[in-house]
Specification:
mainly alpha; Helix Hairpins; minor pseudopilin epsh fold; 3-stranded antiparallel beta sheet; 10 helices; about 55% helix; globular; binds manganese (III) ion
């Protein structure tokens, strides 16, 4: 039959194309599952803005990978779950959600508070870290920090002490109050400074998941290491925007 050869060739082609596609798809599925075991929804896990090992040796690559791909991804997935029945909430950003928790229906308020907070805090945290960002330059942020702490050494000491004062899981923050002054404060769990009426400038994650693999119980060593990673140019720009 004249068609048998072309047909079988087509079949072979189809089979191999299918096999290739299948391989491709399964690789992609595995990756996307690892990225976000999420029921799909309006909220997406923002990509880490650098490689997992970008903050070595201060933050190890494995911690960074688990922290972003598992912990941060879980907040996004759980936020999507929480807003699944609320089209109005689905249209909001995580910042709008954490700034308006009183408007979130009581039934999902705790879930939104924890998971929108988790997404918001981590997204800001990733951007706030950079290796070799250089020191803080003279300018409004430097002046505001000087007003609060006096000198840099005192600032680091007080920031560390504040970070150690967090009992259990939480964050230590440099926030901006209503008078555009910087305040040093902490929040529990994934609460944000917005809940305290302040604008978050810089937050350091002091949950154990942020440091346990490398530092075990030595939170002070982790915080001291992170002080080397502050992305001052980013914070300067953010300070200018938040105080404009
Ligand atoms: Mn975390």
């Amino acid at each position: 039959m004249p068609s048998s050869l072309p047909l079988s060739r087509r079949q072979i082609l189809r089979t191999s194309a299918f096999a290739a596609a299948g391989f491709f798809i399964s690789t992609r599925v595995t990756r996307s599952l690892a990225q976000a075991a999420a029921p799909s929804g309006p909220f997406k896990l923002p990509p880490l803005p650098y490689a997992f090992d970008a903050m070595e040796p201060y933050i190890d690559a494995r911690t960074m990978e688990i922290h972003h791909d598992k912990h941060h991804a879980a907040y996004v997935a759980n936020l999507n779950k929480a807003v699944a029945d609320y089209p109005d909430l689905q249209k909001m950003t995580t910042e709008e959600l954490v700034r308006n928790l009183d408007k979130v229906p009581e039934k999902v308020r705790t879930a939104v508070r924890n998971n929108a907070g988790g997404d918001y805090n981590h997204t800001l945290f990733w951007q706030s870290l950079k290796k070799d960002a250089g020191p803080l330059q003279d300018g409004p942020l430097q002046e505001a920090l000087g007003e609060l702490f006096g000198d840099a050494e005192t600032g680091q000491r007080e920031f560390l002490a504040k970070a150690l004062s967090v009992f259990g899981s939480g964050w230590v923050w440099l926030s901006i109050d209503k008078d555009k002054k910087i305040v040093l404060e902490t929040t529990a769990n994934q609460d944000t400074p917005w809940a305290l009426g302040h604008k978050p400038l810089f937050g350091l994650d002091v949950w154990e998941h942020a440091y346990y693999l490398k530092y075990q119980n030595r939170r002070a060593d982790y915080v001291a290491a992170c002080i080397n990673l502050v992305n001052w140019p980013f914070l300067q720009e953010r300070f200018d925007k938040l105080t404009a």
